[in-house]
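Revision sheet: structure tokens.
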Amino acid sequence: FGLSINIYIMTMKKIILAAVLMLSCVGAFAQSGKDIYKKYSKEREVSAVYISPAMFNLMGRVPDMDIEGEDVNLSPVIKSLSGLYIIDSENVRVNARLSEDVKKLVASGKFELLMEAKEEDEVMQIYIISEGDYVTSFVMLALEDDECSFICMDGKMLKEEMMSLIGGAISDNM
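Predicted:
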């Protein structure tokens, strides 16, 4: 009788260990923009910016802004953001890992590729997660020779307002 209890306990330990390992693997793949920011913000040769929801509430009270001679009303988008994470790296070792982590994030199945632009050795990709009329996450990855930039915006932005801002930025830069 004592032997069967020991076998039962050992079997239960193995099952629990297997379950914990499976859950930890799932957690490793379930990254977010915030997770990527936390992972790379303290690396050498990396610039990092985080803007909190409290700051967006303050910024949401700001009237139209003048950006490079264009009058742009950012208030509707700013008010809807719950986090902005920016990483800009000039560390070649970090760039490869950052790029791979962003690719894993967008490959999670939730993101759709909105735009990709390539010119010589430069690549820029924009991804979004949308729910109905809203964009809940925006990710941009820009890769150059020795630089990698990552931007992630989370919130509940009206798709129409977001596309208007993106369209304006694209037409201004062309």
